[in-house]
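hey so i finally got around to running the thing on that chain from the lab meeting. sorry it took forever, my laptop kept dying and i had to restart like 3 times. anyway pasting the input first so we r on the same page abt which one it is
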Amino acid sequence: MSPRAPVLVLVASLLVHAAPVAAQSRAPATGAVPQGTPRIREAERERLERLGNEVARATREYRTTLGRMRDAYQKDAESIAELVEVRRDLYRRQIVSRREVEIAEALLAEAQAKIKEAERWIQDADKMIAEATVHSELARMTLAAGGYLATGVFIRFNGTVAFTPADLPRVERFFGGRFGRALPVSALGQSAAHDRIGFDHRNAVDVALHPDSAEGRALMAYLQGQNIPFVAVRGAVPGSSTGAHIHIGQPSRRITARP
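ok and heres what got predicted. didnt touch it at all, straight out
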């Protein structure tokens, strides 16, 4: 079974038991409280915060499993690397054939590929933890158009420009002209990681920059000057080591189960 399967099942089970907020808002009221009242909005915020926390917890458990898997792959690779050296020595002494050396080298390449794949999954998990944690934080508050808010976990600027991935080239031109390298985009629109936790990321772009770095601060200043909304996630997200990034666009607020 793929190492992704356990978290997929768990996250799906968490998500599928709750209807989307938009659908919930269309349901008929059953009491004297009309739709859109502060009590209803507060219930929705609490629900989103709770669900975001549950997804983050499930993803942390998944990340721990991936860490153990990566460690096991590394031990396998170390053992196979020793085998490769032994067979190379025996080949030089004409005791084994070149084919036996090639078999050992292929096994080593496979083990190293598994390590890299596990590391990619761990990075995805870190990103998912950060996304879910920030989502639960944003569910608690509203921010006026043009408003700016900074916490220990994230920085948010509520710009009014309707950003989409089609607008990315102008951001890339700014960054390339300023720093002489390509903008390190880590998620262009919807990604598999966003699918797994049910965030609608279609009109957003994630950039692999720490918001407190010189490049991160410059990018955020440019976005704010262009009135482009963003959410910058710091590395202070509990359980996440590499989840820091800058999310360009409105926050990914919608949590739904994916088919």
